[in-house]
Amino acid sequence: MEMIRQNFIKLFAIAVAVLISGQAFGQNPSKKERFVAASDELVAQEGKYWKRTPIPVPDDIVLETSGILPLPGKRLLVTTRRGEIWMIEGAYDKKPKPKFSLFASGLHTPLGIVSAPQGGYYVAQRQEVTHIEDTNDDGLADSFKTVARLPISGSYHEYAYGPVMAPNGNMRVTLNVAFGAPNQAPVPWRGWMVEITPDGQIIPIAAGLRSPAGFTVTSDGLWLYGENQGEWMGSGHVTQIDKGDFVGHRESLRWSREPGSTVSLRFEDIPDSGDPIYEVSKRIPGIKSPTVWFPHTILGISTAGIEEDLTEGEFGPFTGQFFVADQGQSKILRMTLEEVKGVWQGASYPFREGFECGIIRLTMGEGGSLFAGETARGWGSVGTKEQGLERLDWTGKVPFEIYEVKARPDGFLLKFTKPVDRTTAADPENYSISNFTYKYHSKYGSPAVDFMKCPILKVEVAEDGMSVRLAAVCLREGYVHEIKAQGVLSKEKSDNLLHDTAYYTLNQFPYGDRIIPFDSDLCVTAVSPASSSEESSFAKLNSEKPASWDGANAQTSFSLGTVPGMKFDKTLLEVSAGDRVELIFNNEDDMLHNVVICKPGTGQIVGAEALQLGVQGLEMNFIPESDDVIAHTALVSPETTETIYFKAPLEPGDYEYVCTFPGHVFSMTGILRVLP
Ligand SMILES: [Cu+2]
To answer: Residue 520 — φ and ψ, nearest 5°?
Structure first.
């Protein structure tokens, strides 16, 4: 039965894929699910339940927090990307006026710190793992010993994250790939998770990592790591890692033949086809597809630190679940996991946004205080600050939330934090389910592709009102399922859900009872084709000289580049009205950007409209359909150049050019001055 269903779904998916576009998916996108630079209304609501407290930092300290270690006595030891380690006292106070004392300095990009079992601390610097200790108890580190050297070639992107202590007494470190073609793993173990023994041996564990800024070992001994969108990575996600796994980034396999390698896949085994990684993993054993996807731009854009809630309720109702930081969108997401047929999968949920800066570290301190370590330098993020440290505390109030989503053979079980109102909860109209996936290829990122609606055929509300079973058709293994409960009210009918959407990554259908029979016809008839918006989104993109120029050359040629910190290298371009213009855009940055030329005063509006495109945005180059857009490039990959041609407007004025990639429009802006 299972097999028949799988085969059917596969065939069916191929048949309808051509009919479906993103339109079918996002018919009723709620405001909450989109990436908006922190909706004030939502942030205020979230703040009723989890209170954010920024920790004041003296003006002469640049606290680009990269690692947080809580110490007894409500102290924190904090590493910074600038190479310092600070002891902070008073960060738990209601109105903190903390005392900072410098414990160590001169380190090279330390990105984590843990207590060493024998005393002192382990820190991963760019080039080595170091044991650091204050041997004479004067509050200053005085012993620095190299534990293991980490190979580096010199690429700025060769970060080393961690360490995290392993249950066996060793420690683990994750090693970023280098940046840019042709070789992103120029030295051994780039793109790997490695284990390091106390005497300095390096044991390769798993390959295929790209930018593994956050990783952890759970209380059950599971290794989880967070990944960012990029080459081979369609969107951010969390993947459970076993020894010998390959999790996607092909470059790491340049070293899989090295002595000690635990990975048997080879570089040439990995096809650059653009098929979803789940499909490829079925054909090529040894590839592990993501455990939980965090849909790009909706649940963050740069998955980072992962923290398990072991507070037994001190931090609120989500004990045993996970919190996941996002650097670009300065928010914290939530994640639940379940093991189905030996495979881990689960769901991601919004949790809390509105932080001052991008979060790369999450660490639970004493008494259920969650500390968020922040830094934006070189990457940019939503928020008002470039770096910092914030604390998040539960206020004691329980929000009405989707507590957890679990898979069922014919749908999903939604558990809630409070009893639901039976009338609204029993109505299928108050829910929606749809699914989509991402391409797996060497290109940077992927649009969300292959959308399908999953009609809900039956809803069963549990006796106690604490859970609802949704049975639907068109569910597909390997796909991300967007599950919305937009119309469900709490029992007193007083509350809407604080967040009404979850994203479940269905790697395996579980065994168990069905509440609807499997009927393939239902799925086919329920799907209707939708129109593609692709044509209109490219209407103002000329990458060839327009035919109307009759072969004439451009009268004005600009070259526009990027500089670190998400900025264009020029903020003023001048052109005469009606000129034929050639614009050469060099994206020298390490993320995707576009250039969108807008009517005077409309740059921020167009940027906001681009955000509203949500999960379909990438496919549309984040170009909204708007009369305010005059011309634009596509989304240009890192280290790539694109040239476009357009006619300068006839009306003189200060036109604007912006990058509409989510989060960029605030800093990536300039004026195209059209002179009479
Ligand atoms: Cu940009």
So the answer is: -65, -35
